[in-house]
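Thread: quick sanity check before group meeting

JM: Hey all, I'm pulling together slides for Thursday and realized we never actually wrote out the predicted structure for the chain we discussed last week. Dropping the sequence here so it's in one place. If anyone has concerns about the input, flag it before I start.
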Amino acid sequence: MPRGQRPSRSPGGGPGTPNCTVGRRPNQVSSAADRTNGDRGQDANPRSLRDLRKAAGLNQTEVVARVKQALPNVRLSQASLSRAEKGEPRLAPDVVASLCQLYGVTGAERAALIQLATDTEAGYVDARVVVQAGNTVNLQQRFARLEREAAEVRSYNPVMVIGSLQTPAYTATVFGTSEDDHLVQDRIARQQEMLGDPRRRWVFVQTEGSLRWQARSARVMVEQIEHLIELSRAPNVDLGLIEWRTPVEVFQNTAFHLYDETAVIVGTRDGTAIITDRVRLADYRGVFDELAALAAFGDAGRGVLRRIAEEYRAIC
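JM (edit): ok, ran it. Output follows.
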């Protein structure tokens, strides 16, 4: 099967649970994008601008007219409001504040929406700030909004399992905690909700090296790889593996997540960049297409995963 080909497939059951038990040992987080991607409880999410407008009983034309009346110098069109409602972060904080007043949004929800717009203008969130109280939730809300409203999410990670694909044991290792921690449970619940939505397509590309980085123990890795095999059979998931034997001429050493044509989130150890510039988005789409062309999908990809799992079983 040619590399990069995404075969069609019907839903199927995954393999059974491996004969390995999961151990526990704290570890460090390696990517800001996958530290936060998927770790959002629903209670932390403000309603979307579209839902708020609908609840207020207004159409987009009425909203634009009223905002311009309140803010005479603002540049706002029906098209820009429509893009913002679809998840493209183009509205300034003062416009969002005006929308909140128009929609009757108050309190914490209003503050969260305005903070999201402020974070968008900044364009870069330093990891040292993200972990501080009051900022982590705002960043997670932004990720949740992009993910929830995207029709297709494309993700790449060269060093660790992508957050949306992690098992509880792997996630607990990433966070340096136990599987019953609410952070772990929230991520897994979010993962099940998002991957289970048939309206959204997911395309994941992992390197073989990311699976050779043994998180906590061989037992954890066997369980994780079996989980990947099962997820790869879902009708709305394309999971590709770039084998170590594959010659490459593209070198993308940081994780990133593409949300439709709207935004890309690029994670490093030091921070998370949220990019909406169309030229840079096109560049990341091109890089992702190159990486996907190198990857083995479908049965070929599952063959790679089974080989790695067997090697881990040999050292359990």
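AS: nice. The first strand starts at residue 124 and ends at 126. The radius of gyration is 21 Å.
JM: adding both to the slides.
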